[in-house]
Amino acid sequence: NGYNPNITGYPYNPDKARALLAEAGYADGFDFEVRAITDADDFRLAYEAAVQDLRKLGINANLISQNFAGKDGWLEHWLAGTWPYEGFGIGHDLGATMDAGRTFNVFTSCKKPAPYFCDESELPAIDAINGEFDADKRRGMLQDLLAIHTEKAPIIFLLEFEESMAYNPRIKNFRHTTLVIPYHELEVSAN
Question: In this structure, how many other beta carbons lie within 10 angstroms of the beta carbon of residue 66?
Fold first, then answer.
């Protein structure tokens, strides 16, 4: 809910990126530490490519592999809202809710303790969305806020992936609700 088909990805434009950096006072670049969970090759390769692209712009980006849990792990910092570095990797999965409102309530909201992105001017819109029960009106409100949020570019989107599920024809009663499979309902037939 809230998908906005009018929002397109940012075009790859290194010259514009350099101009924006110069306009922001970073013509000579800056140091940028990125920590990410890199145990899966697809994500590791995406992070490595992003770091290479940032370096081409003059940003001294450095990728550091991080554990998910444990002392100084990603989860510890996520829960506490303590980010001792400039950038980090995160999967943005809406599967649990299929609702773009999760973006603002969990990932990029001033309501999260020590958020990594906070624009207080968005709070009235977020509150209005959270209180709207008319599905069509709420969808339009989310689409509008997503368009505004996209213009601010608080996130570097690296890759998009699809969720898919497959099962053997012998499996009966297969279904899912927001990607959760009720395994206790599955049956396996002999043929």
Answer: 20
